[in-house]
């Protein structure tokens, strides 16, 4: 009856929230000219009926589909445009298997429900790779959601580091809380209405102070039940500099004095920078999965293995016990073992594959996971020179993309690689790698490692041996830069999404998301956002330089900006063009390309806010007002013959003032410029 009990808890929680927010709800109904008594009675009757049905269902020990409707009146409070990390939330497929991890889950739930005002607000769950930290995090997040609690789940991922999720962590959490609690939403809307820049600021300190602490202070006592924020895999945010500010906030005095019903569950490996900061903090409760009783972990792994391998008559209780013992407490090892044993390739029996796991051929030392990875790869990748070379080529591509891609998109990119040797279907290598990578069995999902430790293994030659890949290879970035630029030159076109009017801003185009999905292919979307990331990491190549010159020297440059606006990614443009300038600097016959790239940066700086608001104004407003003496205007204006022209008073050159830097609150007394012209430092009485 667990699901029924969860629905009862949710119905009670939702009812309490409705009562708590009744005064705001009542005034909202009044403003919309609705009958307050009638509307209130409808809501009360709805909750009462649902609760009666669920209680009877529980008494009868019967399972019926009773819908709990949530009546939350969200007034017209505009939070559109707030930075949000898509895909960083709860994933129920990663939950613990029912019946496993009971003790640690109960410990965490007891901590969440502890009414003591002095209870630590943050619990740091840490352990080595493969211990099951993420499964526990997603189980807790799922539990909170199922019982109608208020919360947010934010996950870092190694293959999403290019998205700079660390800059969106608290805007995402604030938005999640606002979507679930009307009181918090009103308080948050009030804050951002006074300063719209807070919606997109990458400054996590401002996010913390104004999007989390300030709204919480205004709704103190109004939120029903506990607020639980789950932050998973902080160690995968990137280099230690990517999380230093987050760690600083978590150890601050403000974090120690969060409301007594507020909890943050944080998971990570115990990396030195994380351990050094979190361990001394009194308001952070540290729990190590490495220290959990070996008996209970082995019992849980035994249950997991017996569930995964049920239906295989060869695998009995003794084999399950042997696998559980061999796992040494690593759930990831157990998962890989089960995938390896299942009969998914011809040539060997289940017991032969079982024996390979229990008595591996691989010699030498290495961790248990390393031995498992080598065993699986030896089984899937024949050691001949051609196959190994293709394996390295494919895995370099998968590991070097700045956002994970589906198999069909990876193949499309590969078809544009400069070397004919690379023009093969990646499925010939990836077909049997489903135990290690997602997106192989299910072609609708992106190809990415099922566990981050697999990338670590492939990147370390002392661990992976002949399977060493080295994702940072300059050659693969050169190939991906080629593929991206060829995609841009081939696929970009004018008004790619068929927008009919410049009278509407992007937000007012009702089916814009659908148009983008239909007209901007995944490989074009990726190429628009990341071509310069690959270019920056590639050695200079005259053929690649020719592609760069073709791209920046024609109208495709403008079409690229159009796509970035539609993808809400115009922020990529200036850094991409700056990288292009750095890459071309000092080379022969690139003067025109350099001037066009510099003009492109100034074009975005001057017109970026206009064109990101309404994409058609890229052509209708921005282009005609581009200074007439610039290389960019001379190249583009003849290609667009039906534009308005500025007859009198138009700019001939870019204005000297390129950008206004804002931040000081009092007068600025000193300014210093770095000798390379890249940085400015200022001093003020503030």
From TrEMBL:
Matching InterPro entries: NACHT_NTPase (IPR007111), NPHP3-like_N (IPR056884), P-loop_NTPase (IPR027417), WD40/YVTN_repeat-like_dom_sf (IPR015943), WD40_rpt (IPR001680)
Spans of repeat WD: 661-686
Domain NACHT: 121-270
Keywords: Repeat, WD repeat
Pfam family, one: NPHP3_N
PANTHER family: AMELOGENIN, NACHT DOMAIN-CONTAINING PROTEIN
Protein name: NACHT domain-containing protein
């Amino acid at each position: 009856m667990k699901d029924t009990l969860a629905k009862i808890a949710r119905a009670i929680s939702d009812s309490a929230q409705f009562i708590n927010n009744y005064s705001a709800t009542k005034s909202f109904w009044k403003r919309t000219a609705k009958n307050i008594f009638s509307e209130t009675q409808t809501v009360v009757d709805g909750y009462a009926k649902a609760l009666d049905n669920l209680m009877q269902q529980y008494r009868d020990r019967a399972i019926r589909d009773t819908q709990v409707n949530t009546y939350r009146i969200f007034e017209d409070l505009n939070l559109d445009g707030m930075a949000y990390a898509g895909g960083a939330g709860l994933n129920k497929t990663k939950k613990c298997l029912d019946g496993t991890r009971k003790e640690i889950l109960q410990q965490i739930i007891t901590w969440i429900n502890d009414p003591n005002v002095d209870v630590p607000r943050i619990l740091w769950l840490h352990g080595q790779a493969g211990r099951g930290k993420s499964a526990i995090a997603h189980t807790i997040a799922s539990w909170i959601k199922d019982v109608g609690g208020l919360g947010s789940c934010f996950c870092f991922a190694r293959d999403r580091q290019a998205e700079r999720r660390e800059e969106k962590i608290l805007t995402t959490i604030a938005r999640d809380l606002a979507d679930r609690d009307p009181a918090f939403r009103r308080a948050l809307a009030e804050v951002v209405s006074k300063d719209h820049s807070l919606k997109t600021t990458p400054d996590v300190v401002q996010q913390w102070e104004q999007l989390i602490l300030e709204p919480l202070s205004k709704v103190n006592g109004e939120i029903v039940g506990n607020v639980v924020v789950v932050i998973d895999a902080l160690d995968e945010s990137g280099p230690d500099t990517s999380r230093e500010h987050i760690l600083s906030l978590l150890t601050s005095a403000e974090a120690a004095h969060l409301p007594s019903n507020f909890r943050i569950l944080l998971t990570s490996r115990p990396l030195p920078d994380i351990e050094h900061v979190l361990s001394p903090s009194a308001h952070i409760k540290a729990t190590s999965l490495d220290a959990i009783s070996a008996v209970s972990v082995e019992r849980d792994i035994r249950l997991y293995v017996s569930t995964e391998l049920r239906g295989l008559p060869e695998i009995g209780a003794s084999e399950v016990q042997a696998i559980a013992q061999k796992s040494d407490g690593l759930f990831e090892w157990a998962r890989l073992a089960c995938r390896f044993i299942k009969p998914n390739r011809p040539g060997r029996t289940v017991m032969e594959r079982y024996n390979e796991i229990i008595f591996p051929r691989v010699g030498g030392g290495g961790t248990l996971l390393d031995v498992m990875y080598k065993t699986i790869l030896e089984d899937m990748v024949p050691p001949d020179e051609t196959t190994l070379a293709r394996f390295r080529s494919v895995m370099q591509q998968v590991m070097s993309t700045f956002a994970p891609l589906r198999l069909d998109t990876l193949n499309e990119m590969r078809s544009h690689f400069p070397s004919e040797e690379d023009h093969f279907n990646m499925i010939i290598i990836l077909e049997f790698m489903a135990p290690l990578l997602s997106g192989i069995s299910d072609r609708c999902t992106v190809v990415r490692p099922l566990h981050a430790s697999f990338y670590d293994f492939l990147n370390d030659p002392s661990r992976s041996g002949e399977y060493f890949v080295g994702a940072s290879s300059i050659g693969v970035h050169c190939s991906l830069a080629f593929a991206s630029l060829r995609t841009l030159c081939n696929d970009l076109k004018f008004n790619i999404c068929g927008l009919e009017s410049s009278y509407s801003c992007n937000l007012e185009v009702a089916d814009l998301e659908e148009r983008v999905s239909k007209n901007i292919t995944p490989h074009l979307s990726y190429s628009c956002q990341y071509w310069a990331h690959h270019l920056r990491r590639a050695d200079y190549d005259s053929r690649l330089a020719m592609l760069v010159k073709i791209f920046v020297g024609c109208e495709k440059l403008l079409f690229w900006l159009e796509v970035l606006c539609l993808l809400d990614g115009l922020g990529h443009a200036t850094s991409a063009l700056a990288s292009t300038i750095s890459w071309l600097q000092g080379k022969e016959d690139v003067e025109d390309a350099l001037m066009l790239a510099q003009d492109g940066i100034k074009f975005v700086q001057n017109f970026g806010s206009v064109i990101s608001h309404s994409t058609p104004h890229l052509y209708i407003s921005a282009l005609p007002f581009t200074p007439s003496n610039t290389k960019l205007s001379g190249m583009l204006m003849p290609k667009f013959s039906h534009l308005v022209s500025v007859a009198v008073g138009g700019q001939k050159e870019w204005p000297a003032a390129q950008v206004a830097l804002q931040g000081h609150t009092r007068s600025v007394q000193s300014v210093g410029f770095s000798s390379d012209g890249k940085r400015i430092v200022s001093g003020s009485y503030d």
